[in-house]
């Protein structure tokens, strides 16, 4: 078997590539991930995968195509979940490249992560395989997730803090409006009911303010653009 292995990043490729090497599978890595945003993050992940390939002496094909507007539009227009667009776009590319360049099968390191939609990935890959007339090599590498983490740490690879797209970056870092335990209207209430920062007769602000100090006022976030 001559396998083309799509790789979303260096850390996720660590365990699958080690297992394929031990199984004596002839594989080549492929980096094609225009869904990763922002571009600085795209470059970080490419660098980590390149570092893995250089340290382990793996073959690596790189495609730096980055149609930002097209990717965001595709995710926004996806009728099911936005991840479906990201999976379909990358797996169709991988399947076609494999079919056009003499590979007998393709797979993806997305199957390694327990944080991805595993069944949807497999279903999408099977559809791409049928479309381009090539075999999809399925492996469930999720049980060995920690093994892959350990390998990436040993190699000193950059480990990304979120899935990849601009929406997952927002979900990872945005301060959501859901109040934490002990908070009312984003203001912490002490056990006896007195509000921190509002002692000595200070007046509590209205809900349009998230928080306020003497010189800083932060307005409540809106769900849409107010003025276009």
Would you spell out the secondary-structure blueprint of this structure?
Layout: E1 2-6, H1 10-22, E2 26-31, H2 39-56, E3 60-62, H3 68-77, H4 82-100, E4 105-108, H5 118-132, E5 135-136, H6 145-155, H7 166-173, E6 183-184, E7 187-188, E8 209-212, E9 217-219
Parallel strand pairs: 1-2, 1-4, 2-3, 4-5
Antiparallel strand pairs: 6-7, 8-9
Helix pairs in contact: 1-2, 1-6, 3-4, 4-5
Describe the structure.
The chain has 228 residues and is α/β, with parallel strands linked by helices. The chain folds into two domains: 2-171, HUPs (Rossmann fold), CATH 3.40.50; 178-228, no CATH class. Helices cover 41% and strands 14% of the residues. It contains seven helices and nine strands, in the order E-H-E-H-E-H-H-E-H-E-H-H-E-E-E-E. A five-stranded parallel beta sheet has the order 3-2-1-4-5, with helices on both faces. It has a two-stranded antiparallel sheet with strand order 6-7. The chain has a two-stranded antiparallel sheet with strand order 8-9. The chain is globular and about 55 Å long. Residues 182-207 have low confidence and may be disordered.
Entry keywords:
228 residues, alpha/beta, Rossmann fold, 2 domains, 5-stranded parallel beta sheet, two-stranded antiparallel sheet, 9 strands
Given the C-alpha coordinates, what overall shape results?
globular
Q: How many helices does DSSP assign? A: 7
SSE run: EHEHEHHEHEHHEEEE
Mean pLDDT: 83
């Amino acid at each position: 078997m001559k396998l083309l292995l799509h790789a979303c990043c260096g850390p996720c490729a660590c365990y699958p590539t080690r297992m394929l090497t031990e199984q004596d599978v002839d594989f080549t890595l492929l980096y094609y991930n225009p869904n990763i945003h922002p571009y600085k993050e795209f470059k970080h992940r490419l660098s980590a995968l390149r570092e893995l390939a250089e340290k382990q002496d793996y073959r690596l094909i790189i495609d730096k195509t980055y149609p930002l507007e097209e990717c965001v539009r595709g995710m926004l227009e996806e009728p099911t979940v936005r991840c479906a667009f990201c999976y379909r776009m990358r797996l169709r590319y991988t399947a076609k490249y494999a079919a056009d360049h003499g590979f007998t099968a393709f797979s993806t390191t997305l199957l390694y992560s327990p944080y991805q939609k595993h069944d949807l990935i497999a279903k999408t890959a099977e559809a791409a395989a049928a479309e381009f007339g090539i075999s999809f090599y399925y492996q469930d590498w999720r049980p060995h997730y920690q093994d892959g983490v350990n390998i990436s740490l040993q190699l000193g690879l950059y480990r990304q803090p979120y899935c990849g797209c601009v929406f997952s970056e927002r979900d990872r870092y945005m301060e959501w409006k859901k109040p934490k335990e002990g908070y009312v209207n984003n203001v912490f209430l002490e056990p006896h009911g007195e509000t921190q920062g509002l002692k000595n007769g200070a007046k509590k602000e209205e809900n349009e303010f998230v928080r306020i100090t003497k010189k800083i006022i932060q307005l409540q976030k809106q769900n849409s653009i107010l003025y276009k």
